[in-house]
Amino acid sequence: MNLPNIQIARGVAATLVVFAHANLIINKELFNGFFIIGWSGVDFFFVISGFIIFLTNQKYFGDKSNFITYTKKRLIRVVPTYWICLTFFALALYVMLERNSPTPIFSTQPEGFATRFINSFFLLPTDIHSNEYPMLPVAWTLTYEMMFYLLFAACFFVSRRAALVVGGIWLSLIAARILNFFQASFDNTLFYIITEPKNIEFLLGCLTAYLFTRYTFTDRARGILLSLGLATLAVAWVNTWLDFIWFGKNISVQFGIPYFLITLAIAKEEININRHNSVKKFFIFIGDASYSIYLTHYPLLLIFASLSRNKGINDYALFFFLLTASIILGTIFYRIIEKPIIELAKRKFLKTKSSTESNLRSAILHK
Fold it and tell me: Does some domain include residue 366?
């Protein structure tokens, strides 16, 4: 099954996040901060992640023999690339701290360097709502990805019906927290993470995959879904940009629903990818490299912005230059580091490869 549009969507999600951080790091007043809302690319990632995981693994519900292979695949996909990025960034950050250079890193202080690195290395949860982030700030999303992978793996030990019941209970807990039926404290970390509203986006992704496999959508229906998705995304984006002038701050619902509609609209099988024109191939490649772009862009933007400071460069020109450079360098990182390492790890730790997942062109973040 080839779903190139989903791969392109991953590239779009990563690019949105790069836009957000470029706007924030260079000058948050650029474009009146309009592109800062690009952080919603994370919400898009979470929906896509739920879609891919459900689509490629629903057939294993009730089959606990697949648990080890599934776990290996998820770890291979996420961990090696992340550890490499984290290590390089930690070394650069350590040098900056030793030289007393300014380090605009969320909550990173020299006295907690070793502890923060270890916590980040193992993707231990951080309270992002209190502005506490891992050493590589974008990695907070990976904690939620890994938690989702683990909870989804529980489906291998129960029947499909029981899995739907568990999913329903999880959705109910998230909805109750969104509706303020209870307050979650980070002191109870596990419950706090499980009931985090952003998890609803993984479930929306699972629902997308369920509907995609269960029903056939005409081109007209996809067009309607896409129009609704883009319209509601525009409303959510502008509402957030203007400090929630129309409705409240329920980010996971405001952005989760539009990205759910968009993902359902674009999920269309195409038999022969080789027949795509060069433009579409380019965007598929950006999708392939989206995880590397996501992990590397933040350190690159910080370094480039620091080197460019006080050089008299126009902020708008700097924005587009650093945006382009971060994406290009992210794709290079993918070609020379991420892709070879993942292929090596698969050969070493996996005896077989899921044809479905392979044909989706490694279509999972998290990423």
Answer: no
